[in-house]
From TrEMBL:
It comes from Streptomyces cremeus. Keywords: Antibiotic resistance, ATP-binding, Nucleotide-binding, Transport. SMART domains: AAA. InterPro entries: AAA+_ATPase (IPR003593), ABC_transporter-like_ATP-bd (IPR003439), ABC_transporter_ATP-binding (IPR050763), P-loop_NTPase (IPR027417). It is a peripheral membrane protein. This is ATP-binding cassette domain-containing protein. Its main location: membrane.
Length: 326
């Protein structure tokens, strides 16, 4: 059964803007504009899009913080806006830019409060806390007040807090924002293990595409409140009309190589970079070059996902052509 179901969900905000000294202009912002998707139990899905695309608004509707203006939305069969308290025991939420921990209390006191708030059975709480402390490296931090934690430490503390009550689904809004490389990698490893061992469903919003590449097989792209792509991460390359790069090392410096199968995009001494469509095989190109030029070595580079996504955002709705949409 699908754990998360959205059918034509909309969220419209009424905004008032000052216009002149006394006049205020009323305007409507369609933050989410008719989105439909389903997420089965156990999946890790990336939810990406440019600033203001509607990602946080979607997550807030999925937690029940915001009520949709239209459409149908269910999480574990529950209507989040109507039964927010009942849903709270089934979901975990981490907002990277805010903490759910008590600022002045040591980390462990925040966890004790959650133990009581969520009425978590004692044995369950102890087991979950022990697991998070071990896997997220929290032992040294439990007695430290939250305000004294670094961003990376606090984020790990927040992720543990979201998991103490065994949620079926975890929403992560920018969980690696501002973290250093080591902390990012710890958080990603933890999420991978969580999904593999406990089957927790994860919906992940991020601007860091490495998060997506390392965690998600499926990705959804939203722009201007609309779903532009929903499918395999690999499929994005086709939608983005992206290119692979053949890097060739020649025996000596030569003018840009001539072939109809690719175009030379960079020359540096005896090394040349040739771009060709990601959807075609490199074999004929390699064969042609090997027959015509003195090659020493070669390698093929996959398209850079950052470039693919940037193209897609820039293309607006047109960028969605060919995308698999649910
Ligand atoms: N409470 C609100 N009142 C009015 N407009 C809002 C409100 N919350 C969000 N918006 C608007 O809705 C749109 C979508 O915002 P949202 O925060 O969902 O985007 P986002 O994809 O999460 O962006 P970011 O990547 O910058 O966090 C934006 O135009 C934003 O200004």
């Amino acid at each position: 059964m699908d754990l998360i179901e959205l059918d034509n969900v909309e969220k419209v905000f009424d905004v008032r803007r000052k216009k002149g000294l006394l006049r205020r202009e009323k305007r409507q912002v369609r933050a989410v504009d008719g989105i439909s998707f389903t997420i089965p139990r156990g999946e890790v899905v990336g939810y990406i899009g440019p600033n203001g695309a509607g990602k946080s608004t979607t997550i807030k509707m999925l937690t029940g913080i915001l009520t949709p203006s239209g459409g149908r939305l269910r999480v574990a069969g529950i209507d989040p806006a109507r039964e927010r308290t009942r849903l709270a025991s089934r979901i975990g939420v981490v907002f990277g830019q805010r903490t759910t921990l008590w600022w002045d209390l040591p980390l462990k006191d925040s966890y004790r409060l959650m133990h009581r708030m969520y009425r978590i059975p004692d044995a369950r709480f102890a087991a979950n806390l022990a697991r998070c402390v071990e896997l997220l490296d929290l032992a040294e931090l439990l007695d430290v007040p939250v305000r004294q934690l670094s961003l990376g430490q606090r984020m790990r503390g927040d992720i543990a807090a979201a998991l103490l009550h065994d949620p079926e689904v975890l929403y992560l809004d920018e969980p690696t924002i501002g973290l250093d490389v080591v902390s990012k990698s710890k958080v990603r490893q933890f999420l991978r293990d969580l999904n593999a061992e406990l089957g927790t469903t994860v919906l992940l919003t991020t601007h860091d595409l490495t998060d997506i590449e390392q965690l998600c097989k499926r990705v959804m792209v939203i722009d201007h409140g609309r779903l532009m792509y929903d499918g395999a991460l690999a499929g994005l390359h086709e939608v983005g009309e992206s290119e692979r790069t053949l890097v060739v090392d020649l025996e000596r410096e030569l003018p840009p190589l001539v072939t109809r199968l690719a175009r030379v995009v960079k020359v540096e001494g005896p090394r040349q970079w040739l771009a060709f469509p990601a959807s075609v095989s490199a074999a004929p190109l390699v064969a042609e070059l090997a027959a015509a030029y003195p090659l020493l070595d070669l390698s093929v580079r996959e398209p850079d996902i950052e470039v693919v996504i940037a193209k897609m955002y820039a293309g607006g709705a047109d960028g969605a052509r060919g995308a698999r949409l649910t």
